Amino acid sequence: xxxxxxxxxxxxxxxxxxxxxxxxxxxxxxxxxxxxxxxxxxxxxxxxxxxxxxxxxxxxxxxxxxxxxxxxxxxxxxxxxxxxxxxxxxxxxxxxxxxxxxxxxxxxxxxxxxxxxxxxxxxxxxxxxxxxxxxxxxxxxxxxxxxxxxxxxxxxxxxxxxxxxxxxxxxxxxxxxxxxxxxxxxxxxxxxxxxxxxxxxxxxxxxxxxxxxxxxxxxxxxxxxxxxxxxxxxxxxxxxxxxxxxxxxxxxxxxxxxxxxxxxxxxxxxxxxxxxxxxxxxxxxxxxx
Length: 289
Prior knowledge:
The protein is of the alpha+beta class. The protein has helices at about 1-10, 40-50, 155-160, 185-200, 200-205, 210-215, 275-280; strands at about 25, 55-70, 75-90, 90-105, 110-115, 125, 135, 165-170, 175-180, 220-230, 235-250, 250-265, 285.
């Protein structure tokens, strides 16, 4: 889990470091006394250090996703509003929000989401159709192993620097702002390599043949990031992402478009996430697949 957070909070920053020695361009209205002369590389190093020291965080996520299969005239739109709490030692997660689905006809269906997850991968989820809680043991295999390996900053920097196609490094009064467009063709190779390196072996083993083929046939057509880093703490305060990808499956093409906005807050302010005892006692355990 910590590796995933660090990938969001700092690893992504390396994509924009094609101009590592440039300082951030002040945005209009930024007071001169608040302007910083740190370079993009220096900000990255400090952001990576801050992410390594992260113990917990809250996040608010708003995401729009469109999945379409042009050959079948199929389209499904998903709008997600989610608030999340996460701790890293021990690994625990609580997320709560709303998921709205709509098809090409415009018909909408909404569901309330409430999920707890523990370090061993056990998930407690409230049934969207009622008040019953469900328990799934080992829902995310090897979740605890994602905290063990730390990335080497210099290796990440060298590995990812070449994947940036266009980058802007700016600053306002309180934040550094990194805007970048990744080279989709090159970035495809990195995504596949990173997934294979970071996913626990048991998770890879449990992937079906179709899922493995989908990963091999995945292509990222567009990837844009906009990241905000606090000037004092060097914690990431927000990240916006636009991604367009496609998956080839025999004669079919599945298109996926994602537009997400994430705001981080209360970093290192959560001591513990506890699952209410009444949820543990009343949850109906689902059979493992």
